[in-house]
Design a protein that fits this description.
mainly alpha, Fumarate Reductase Cytochrome B subunit, two-stranded antiparallel sheet, two-stranded antiparallel ribbon, about 0% strand, elongated, formate dehydrogenase (NAD+) activity, formate dehydrogenase (quinone) activity, transport, electron transfer activity, FDH_cytochrome_b556_subunit
Length: about 375
């Protein structure tokens, strides 16, 4: 069988020789060439593309916003960070400012509360039930508003803290797989509970704002640090200046800003353009206020549980003893005695025999 004849002339398949490439800038019309045209001169050379990316040249994208065609944002500089592209500057602010300083704040608050407890102990005296007609401090609706808002806040706080700091103390223990599933679940829980927190916050504000307006007694309370420096309990109305401060500066103002920034991050605001710079700003505001709120609410939780005798029972049952009211909120107690404020504001209050709201004088000094 005769051997096949060799092919005559060049084959139909041709490829560029990457070993004999010439300088692309020597090509005529180099500046006007597209990336596709330059790739014919220098196959595999992506430098022109990334050079344009670094210069902020916008491309064409099939996305909702034209800014998505610009891969690298303009250069900005936030306090405490070096000048960098907006995305990198946001990352630096989160990792080098918000997280370390936020963690330090929470640690300082925890240590301060622990030190205060072991040096001062719980504030106030014991007031066993049955020393007079119990006073209704919180109605069932007020307690429901408080506990629903508290449950939503604690859920958001714990899930947010895990997402922020979990990689430092949970990832080494759980491993990447379990921690990944946990973070994913908490992220979705965070997003769903956020709107519920918003509703409970509005109810909370509407319920308690009337009794949290500052008055003259509050300024006296602040000047003497609430009696925590040794003067004993100071007279106050239904809520003292410290409790009013928590209402305004830990619940209301940061809470509303947290809700607003959270709705932006969840993209739940109708008609809003979700540009990258706006999302980065919303995240920074959200994270900073969340850490501050956690620190302040930690103090509120302390005072409402182990820090003040009888405070937790008041929010759990709704009632306090006359002696407790006189010791901790003397002006409120006097208004009840004078008839300005009813001792029972709830229609469903349990029927009890009428007993005069008089108690033996108690010392307002701390034990």
């Amino acid at each position: 069988m005769p051997a096949p004849a060799p092919l005559a002339g060049p084959t139909a398949i041709r490829s560029a020789n990457i070993l004999t490439l010439q300088d692309a800038s020597a090509e005529p019309g180099y500046a006007e060439q597209s990336n596709a045209q330059r790739a014919q001169v220098q196959p595999g050379n992506n430098a022109p593309v990334w050079r344009q990316v670094g210069q902020g040249v916008s491309g064409t994208v099939n996305m909702p916003y034209a800014e998505y065609g610009t891969l690298i944002q303009p250069t900005v500089q936030y306090p405490g960070t070096r000048a960098a592209s907006a995305g990198e500057a946001w990352r630096q602010l989160r990792n080098q400012v918000l997280l370390p300083y936020g963690a330090a704040l929470l640690l300082i608050v925890a240590l301060a509360l622990g030190l205060f407890y072991f040096t001062k102990g719980p504030l106030g005296q014991e007031h066993p039930p049955g020393q007079g007609q119990a006073i209704e401090r919180f109605t069932p609706f007020e307690r429901a508003a408080h506990w629903s808002n508290a449950a939503a806040f604690l859920t958001l706080a714990l899930s947010g803290l895990v997402m922020a700091f979990g990689k430092f103390f949970l990832l080494p223990v759980l491993g990447s797989t379990l921690f990944g599933w946990l973070a994913y679940a908490l992220k979705n829980l965070h997003n769903f509970v956020g709107p519920l927190y918003a509703v409970s916050l509005l109810v909370m504000i509407a319920t308690f704002v009337k009794d949290n307006i500052a008055n003259r007694a509050d300024f006296q309370w602040l000047l003497r640090a609430g009696g925590m420096l040794g003067q004993g309990q100071l007279p106050s109305h239904r809520f003292n200046a410290g409790e009013k401060g928590i209402f305004w500066w830990a619940v209301t103002i940061p809470g509303l800003l947290l809700v607003a920034s959270g709705l932006v991050l969840d993209k739940l605001v109708p008609g809003l353009d979700y540009f990258r710079a706006d999302m980065q700003l919303a995240h920074m505001v959200h994270a900073a206020l969340a850490l501050l709120s956690c620190a302040l609410i930690a103090g509120h939780i302390y005072m409402g549980t182990v820090g003040t005798r009888g405070a937790y029972r008041a929010m759990r049952t709704g009632y306090v003893e006359p002696g407790w009211a006189r010791e901790h909120h003397e002006l409120w107690y006097q208004d009840i005695q004078s008839g300005k404020i009813p001792a029972r504001r709830s229609q469903s209050a349990p029927a009890k025999p009428r007993v005069p709201l008089s108690v033996n004088p108690v010392s307002r000094s701390n034990p």
